Amino acid sequence: MAAVTGAGSPGRLVQYVVVRSDLVHKLSWPLGAVITQACHAATAAIHLHYGDPDTQRYLAELDAMHKVVLGAPDEAALSGLSENLTQAGVAHKLWIEQPENIPTCLALKPCQKETVQPLLRKFKLFK
Length: 127
Hints:
The protein is α+β, with helices and mostly antiparallel strands and about 130 residues long. It has helices at about 20-25, 30-50, 55-60, 75-85, 115-120, and strands at about 15-20, 65-70, 90-95, 100-110, 110, 125. Pfam families: PTH2.
């Protein structure tokens, strides 16, 4: 695991992943299945924004990638966050599990923490 030194330094790129915590705590999804959803969303966000300069810089620092996984209490909170991110022009991927058509999580493209933290402030680390 890479050290997290310099996490607050300007220019450090972070990829945020927001996962529905009710999937584990209320709907009894296996933790592995929920982790898989987060992996799908993170991979999809990178793929969709592969040509973006921040994404390229993030990938160039392969051994120093920094991700933050936050929890959304339910589907409504996750969908609301996706709408807020879209309105703010923040690139992300809302992962919808198929064929069930269930929004499970979302991932932002790699970005500077300072640019998106106000939109994510109400979400706490996933537990």
